[in-house]
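Any chance you could type out some protein's one-letter sequence along with its backbone structure tokens so I can compare the two?
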Amino acid sequence: MRIGVPKEIKDNEYRVGLTPASVREVVTHGHEVAVESGAGLGIGVSDNEYIAAGAQIRANAAEVFEQSEMIVKVKEPQAVERRMLRSDQVLFTYLHLAPDAEQTKDLVDSGAVCIAYETVQDSKGTLPLLAPMSQVAGRLSIQAGATALQKANGGRGVLLGGVPGVEPAKVVVIGGGVVGSHAITMAIGLGADVTVLDRDLDVLASLSKQFGSSLKTVYSTYASLEEYVVSADLVVGAVLVAGAAAPKLVTRDHVSAMRAGSVLVDVAIDQGGCFETSRPTTHTNPTYIVDDVVHYCVANMPGSVARTSTYALNNATLPYVLGLADNGYKAALRNIPGFLSGLNVYRGVVCEESVAKNLGYEFVSPDMALND
């Protein structure tokens, strides 16, 4: 199979779909890899390193798309990239379609086979291709929040861990999954006063066992959410409904009742955000203020630590890339446990139920779509 790796063009996105080590694995399996010139510079990898791994370097994205049967990316294709997709191609990347009507329409119109990292499941029902970036984003959320709390950045002027004689910042994490647990790890490590809210008692019990008395665990209700959010210095939104738009758990009224200079970090922004006042931002302009509350809603948070993120992501995606290349997409989707759940758009139809429901498309099950 001919596999293409274009350079990412989303604002301040430096990750890359395949590392040289991944390219070498793919080439060893008998496939061809075309990498856009400069695609790896953001993670400190030169074109020569890709050539040494067996890749062919192409001058621009148009050449990569034109010559490839499968496109492997990191972030969702931007409008100019979507116009280069063809009906005989497979696209394998993060998509986050539920809040993105324009992208969904373009992918449907392209006729391509579009597989989303974030909805691929494994045999245990977890999300193996989302997990590494959730780990990174969870840890980054605390770094970003701590920076936003500084007075020069619009925050309250609070040091996350405090100092002897001065209390630490109050950090509230909404959602105790992968993002939430890694946010908790960082916040506790910095000495903050940390509370997590979740509706899964098993999750709360697991977190309580892991962190002990360093973490307050609270069952999430409308009342508890309001109580803890309004009194927090930093709130991390770590809510996930796989494939679907994130629920708006923090309302505009909650935000207006928070103290001036408090900070909201919405890690769910790729799926539309879990705060009513959220809107996507970029690494160039990461924050904005609503009712004197600082909002950090960068839609590609892990891109700021591109090298760590790329290698972590490749560790998870490489087996699936090899499966697609070695066996073809139909066999790979059917035979790799949980992989079929990653099929979001197939030759003009929507195969992810939450996306179809959110955006008004007829839902065609992945299994039925592959029987065409």
User: Anything to note?
Assistant: The radius of gyration is 21 Å. The CA atoms of residues 101 and 359 lie 6 Å apart. DSSP finds 14 helices and 15 strands in the chain.
